[in-house]
Design a protein that fits this description.
Elements lengths: L1 H4 L10 H18 L6 E5 L5 H8 L3 E5 L3 H9 L4 E2 L5 H11 L2 E7 L8 H11 E12 L1 H6 L16 H10 L2 E9 L5 E8 L8 H13 L4 H27 L4 E4 L3 H10 L8 E3 L17 E2 L3 H5 L3 E4 L5 H7 L1 H5 L3 E4 L5 E2 L1
Parallel strand pairs: 1-2, 1-4, 2-3, 4-5, 8-9, 8-11, 9-10, 11-12
Antiparallel strand pairs: 5-7, 6-7, 12-13
Helix pairs in contact: 2-3, 5-6
Length: 347
């Protein structure tokens, strides 16, 4: 983990969509669970502090925890105190001793990255106030299967989450899952809320609704996953044929976005520099680098105007709408967007 995350380059604040999402997220927690004014909010995997800043603006005390050195330091310098560490029960006890119990603990898009989930939940248990809540967002397995979101499967993600096993997991570790809301991030995610087993909160109907959905989708049946694999292969053939046809006509293709999921898609579909001429990304931390293994250069978005590709393959497809809106001049100049997932579409 230290090798993987110490020099992490993803930052939430570079995405206007995620900034808006975290603003809604913080407001929703404040309204629904009404933590006491000035109470402590701890974010596990807090990144650049985007979420915590909204809690801070709402009058809460905040504490970030993140293993990425440079990102944690930058967040602290920007006013969001961030411990550069991995979260566990020992660190939880340290935070509680120094700052008191937490009314809210959050963990967003980090649960899948952690091998020792039991250790993390032990830390959450040790840190939470008796009436506190643990709120987390994870990629939802139901969406992965329904929408063929296969590119969310990559080296950082050690587990893929559904409500049925989460109910059992939290129960086994002295907690209770009391809400399970579906949200749009990453093509389809789950916002779960858990409390201590002794907590007084009632279990929301959303938990039963997700359990019913998972049963209907057959998440416990092997044939569901065989069908998933077949749909991936069908999409691969369709996209390869489309892009190869464009290249045969002498058209140029650039990728938009260099998220980790792009590596899965590019490798599985065989999209190297013979197909994708270059990639652009809005994050300065990724510009000047290359896609892993395939070595497609990652450039600033200004390269779209400078090099004038005919097509933009949106690799960060979960941000397709804002990407297209922000690059309307490209489309007005007869450039076309290609959205590969969840359904292949040329716009």
């Amino acid at each position: 983990p230290s090798l993987l995350f110490a020099d992490y380059v993803y930052v939430s604040g570079t995405s206007p969509s995620f900034v808006a999402h975290f603003e809604e997220y913080a407001a929703s927690i404040m309204e629904t669970y009404q933590p006491p004014p000035g109470a402590l909010v701890v974010d596990i995997g807090s990144n650049d502090g985007t979420l915590l800043r909204f809690f801070q603006q709402a009058g809460m005390a905040v504490q970030g925890v993140d293993p990425a050195r440079d990102i944690a330091r930058a967040a602290s310098e920007a006013g969001i105190e961030t411990l550069n560490a991995f979260f566990d029960a020992v660190l939880a006890a340290q935070i509680r001793e120094e700052k008191g119990a937490a009314a809210v603990v959050t963990a967003n898009n980090v649960f899948a990255h952690i091998d020792d989930l039991a250790g993390v939940v032990a830390g959450v248990r040790a840190l939470l106030d008796e009436g506190g809540v643990f709120v987390f967002e994870v990629s939802y397995l139901a969406d992965v299967l329904e929408k063929t979101l296969f590119d969310t499967i990559y080296h950082e993600h050690l587990s893929y989450h559904a409500v049925a096993p989460l109910v059992s997991f939290f129960s086994h570790h002295g907690m209770e899952l009391i809400a399970a809301e579906r949200v749009d991030t990453h093509g389809g995610s789950l916002r779960g809320v858990a409390q201590l087993a002794s907590g007084a909160g009632e279990v929301a109907e959303s938990v039963a609704a997700c359990l019913e959905l998972e049963e209907r989708l057959g998440l416990g049946r092997a044939e569901t996953f065989h069908d998933f694999a077949e749909r991936i292969d069908t999409l691969k053939i369709s996209l390869r044929d489309l892009l190869s046809g464009f290249k045969a006509e002498g058209q140029s293709i650039a990728g938009y976005g260099a998220p980790a999921k792009a590596t899965t898609l590019m490798y599985h579909f065989g999209l190297g520099p013979d197909i994708i001429d270059f990639i652009v990304d809005d994050s300065p931390l990724k510009q000047g680098l290359y896609s892993p293994g395939l070595h497609v250069p990652v450039l600033p978005s200004g390269a779209i105007t400078e090099q004038g590709p005919d097509y933009l393959l949106i690799l960060a497809w979960n941000f397709a709408q804002p990407i297209m809106a922000n690059n309307s001049a490209f489309h007005e100049a007869e450039g076309r967007f290609i959205i590969p997932v969840p359904e292949l579409e040329v716009v």
